[in-house]
Specification:
Blueprint: E1 2-5, E2 8-16, E3 25-33, E4 36-42, E5 51-55, E6 57-62, H1 79-82, H2 94-107, E7 110-117, H3 126-140, E8 143-150, H4 162-166, H5 170-180, H6 187-201, E9 206-212, H7 220-233, E10 237-241, H8 245-254, H9 259-265, E11 273-277, H10 283-292, E12 295-298, H11 300-305, H12 313-318, E13 322-325, H13 338-349, E14 351-352, E15 355-356, H14 360-376, E16 392-396, H15 397-400, H16 411-418, E17 424-429, E18 432-436, E19 439-440, H17 445-459, H18 464-481, H19 484-487
Parallel strand pairs: 2-5, 6-7, 7-8, 8-9, 10-11, 11-12, 12-13
Antiparallel strand pairs: 1-2, 2-3, 3-4, 5-16, 14-15, 16-17, 17-18, 18-19
Helix pairs in contact: 2-3, 2-17, 3-6, 5-18, 6-7, 13-14, 13-16
The chain binds zinc ion.
Family: Belongs to the metallo-dependent hydrolases superfamily. ATZ/TRZ family.
Organism: Pseudolabrys taiwanensis
Protein name: Hydrolase
Length: about 500
């Protein structure tokens, strides 16, 4: 599959999908040197390689989480009641947690990932933890943007939480107060921490972004500070936006001028910013986002799983938005399969009869071009061409095409009809072989997963208080979001 001559490496492809807009071409040899693609040339011998090469995928919204929904009993819970379930996950060694998350991401076909770090393990100070996350990223070898979480508002619900606490027993109220209602670190300190962490860990394949949790979770002071800091430093910003109908109602009551116009006023609507979800955007807001060049990250599986809704992807594209793909730690089969995620999004949004809403080139940009830009800030990726970064995904063409009856079915049809991570043979990121023969080559993922599961099970009693309080909290949250504020 890959041969090395001197420092350069050759990758032979039976088929090459060079970019979102270019057709697949047969029999190509790709030369990689010093982390970049230096040549792509026809090679008749390459036809026998049994490989379909395409740009590595990007996962532009994730959280470096290691626990699947069903592992902590939070399947089928709407987002607002689901978020507190994260407190059931015990704090563990951040390197172990991150290395498993990044290795699973790589095995799922992703070369660049946004780690919106909303769940700090907290066993040490944050700079020490961030160093461990950066080390995990480098050990695995994929591009990681660590979006450092900033939050100082609405710790439990999107408005006052008195009615929620009033519904709880004294024991549950004590637990929730202890775990969720600690006074926040001052906004300026949180923003300064992002810059300090960036100075400490950035380099190679790791970058740092400001990661405000979302408008409903940050004070005006916090968001303005981030808008100013991003303009000053050029550092990118990643945040949640309008993920649920309750967030939309809260936003409409809080910002008479409109939440997207508010973001524009405070310097958080520009090319440096990416927004996760955006399910409840209105057409005029999509147009403003498109005009300012911000990126929208759609998370189809996650939106199904936590019952948030369906993003208007066709409308976003029609209004000119740059739309990228995210898995949000909630892939449909509780794996990290980026190929299936792309296919799911495509099948959900592609067309109504003959009215095509998502052209194939757009779903490919969604999968490997726009997300890479949101993660790395570099616009030269998502393509296999001389000068581009050497981020390649290599699929097993023999297996993918094994059942063909008609020999000339385009490779792209097979990719969109049945592509999934089982077909992944290799993943190359910055010229480094991260997945080889379908297995993560840089770290021992199965051994780490075994260690992780044992660690989580051993530490599970540390969150027993939360487990006891969950049924009461869930019922109180359901009642809260059914109240007049959200229904009236
Ligand atoms: Zn998220």
């Amino acid at each position: 599959m890959a041969a090395e001559t001197g420092t350069a490496r050759q990758v032979a492809a039976s088929w090459l999908l060079p970019s979102a807009e270019a057709p697949t071409v047969a029999g190509q040899s790709i030369t990689i040197d010093n982390g970049r693609i230096v040549a792509v040339a026809p090679d008749t011998k390459a036809s026998a390689a049994g490989t379909l090469a395409l740009p590595a995928f990007a996962n532009a919204h994730d959280h470096a989480r290691v626990v699947r929904v069903s592992q902590v009993g939070s399947y089928d819970v709407p987002l607002e009641a689901w978020l507190p379930y994260l407190a059931l996950i015990p704090a563990i060694d951040p390197w172990l947690a991150s290395v498993v998350a990044f290795a699973r991401t790589a095995r799922g076909g992703v070369g660049s990932v946004m780690a919106h770090y909303t769940r700090v393990q907290g066993l040490t100070d944050f700079p020490t933890e961030a160093r461990a996350v950066a080390k995990a990223a480098r050990d695995v070898g994929i591009n990681v943007a660590l979006a450092v979480h900033c939050r100082d508002l609405n710790p439990l619900v999107y408005d006052t939480h008195d009615d929620v606490l009033a519904k709880l027993s004294p024991q549950a109220c004590d637990c929730i107060t202890r775990r969720f209602l600690r006074p926040p670190v001052p906004a300026a300190e949180q923003v300064a921490m992002v810059d300090a962490v960036a100075r400490d860990i950035e380099g190679d394949n790791v970058t740092v972004q400001y990661g405000p949790a979302g408008v409903q979770w940050c004070t005006d002071e916090m968001l303005r500070l981030i808008g100013e800091a991003s303009a000053r430093t050029g550092r990118r910003v990643h945040m949640h936006l309008l993920e649920t109908r309750y967030q939309r109602i809260w936003a409409d009551k809080t910002f008479p001028q409109g939440i997207v116009r508010y973001l524009d006023e405070i310097g958080l609507l520009n090319e440096r910013v990416s927004f996760a979800h955006c399910i409840y955007l209105r057409p005029d807001e999509m147009e403003l986002i498109a005009e300012r060049g911000a990126t929208i990250v759609v998370n189809t599986s996650s939106n199904f799983i936590v019952s948030s809704g369906l993003a208007p992807v066709g409308e976003m594209l029609a209004r000119g938005c740059r739309v990228a793909m995210g898995l949000d730690g909630l892939a449909f089969d509780e794996d990290e399969d980026a190929l299936r995620e792309m296919r799911l999004a495509y099948n959900v949004h592609k067309a109504r009869g003959f009215d095509v809403r998502v052209p194939r080139a757009d779903i490919l940009r969604f999968a490997f071009e726009h997300g890479r830009f949101a993660v790395t800030g570099a616009a030269d990726g998502g393509r296999i061409a001389p000068g581009a970064p050497a981020d390649l995904l290599l699929l097993d063409w023999e297996a993918l095409s094994a059942e063909l009856v008609e020999p000339d079915v385009p490779p792209l049809h097979l990719l969109l009809a049945k592509g999934r991570q089982d077909y992944i043979k290799g993943l190359i990121v910055g010229g480094r072989e991260v997945v080889r023969d379908g297995t993560v080559a840089t770290v021992d993922l199965p051994a780490m997963e075994t260690e992780l599961l044992a660690t989580l099970r051993k530490a599970a009693p540390s969150t027993a208080d939360m487990r006891t309080a969950m049924p009461e909290l869930s019922a109180a949250l359901a009642a809260h979001y059914g109240n007049d504020f959200y229904c009236g």
